[in-house]
Amino acid sequence: MAIACYAIGAVKAYLYVRGEYHYLLGQLTRALEQAKATGLLGCDIELREGAGAYVCGEESSLMESIEGKRGEVRYRPPFPPNHGLWQEPTIINNVETLMNVVPILRNGADWYSKIGTEQSKGTKVFSVSGDIERPGVYELPMGTPLRELVYTLAGGKDVKAVQVGGASGRVLPAAKLDTPLAF
């Protein structure tokens, strides 16, 4: 996030945490304090906790929530880079996007583009929950078969179906577990 702020000349950033992840606030607060103590941030990063609404994954409703309003989608135009948070120019990135910045800077874009598939490059973070042995968050190269995530990593047993893509996704039967995880 600090690198992204530096790249665009931003001096203020918000790290938005949905309400259901309240238990992470202590760890995030300590991590921010440690980063600030190094003097290397170059920007002010403020934690903001939302009410936990799924819709706040959409950028305009996320801005509404940060502003202390109900998380509802804004009409567009105007778009956030012109009139975003408090009607100021705003750039929004999710944590998954930002977590790729350092490895790409360290190893180069060519290195990153070799991970995954021709159409879906890089890695993706997958959250797994339900009737499995090891629920959690897993980062995998794009193109990894769904079966590897469900059985090998998460410890699924006799899986009949898997819901992919969250609340707006779909249910895949067990016969489709060899589907590559890709766009």
**In whole angstroms, how far apart are the ends?**
25 Å
Radius of gyration over all CA atoms, rounded: 19 Å
Order of neighbouring strands in the sheet with most strands: 1-2
Q: Approximately what portion of the residues adopt beta-strand conformation?
A: 15-25%
Total count of strands: 6
- Could you name the ranges where pLDDT drops below 50 across 5 or more consecutive residues? none
Commentary on this structure:
- The structure is a single chain.
- By secondary structure, this protein is an alpha+beta fold.
- Helices cover 29% and strands 17% of the residues.
- It has seven helices and six strands; from the N terminus they run αβαβααααββαββ.
- The chain has helices spanning 2-8, 25-38, 59-66, 95-98, 101-107, 109-113, 146-153; strands at residues 12-17, 44-49, 123-128, 136-141, 161-164, 170-173.
- The strands form three sheets. It has a two-stranded parallel sheet with strand order 1-2. Strands 3-4 form a two-stranded antiparallel sheet. The protein has a two-stranded antiparallel sheet with strand order 5-6.
